[in-house]
Amino acid sequence: MSLKTWREEFYPTAAAAQTTNTAVAHSLLKWIGLRPENLAKHGLTATRSRLDGATGELSFFVTSNTCALCVLYFDADSDDPCVTCPLSVSRGNVACDEGDSPYEKFVEGNNPEPMIAALKKLRAEEGSRR
Question: Cα(14)–Cα(122) distance, rounded to whole angstroms?
Fold first, then answer.
């Protein structure tokens, strides 16, 4: 197992501008892949926002570049670049990397569960709007 096999299972396509529903699904799959048991299954370690394998492969970074929601909604030219992101809106208009946030829980403690919970909540909210 390797970073390659992890990507095949949990990150099969690059983050790209998609619909909100597909971006949420893409993000949720990636974050489920960041659970310790899924990283271990593929022989990966997480150090802050970086995943590394034992085989010397290139690293994978858990950043806005690998987040489908960020690719779709992040506006670098805005004073509030996450204002239109449905995950930010779902969290009470708070970006997922602000303060004691789901992203920080992963970066500081390798805990993907807060982000998984936030994405599942958003998925339920989006489903109820249909």
Answer: 21
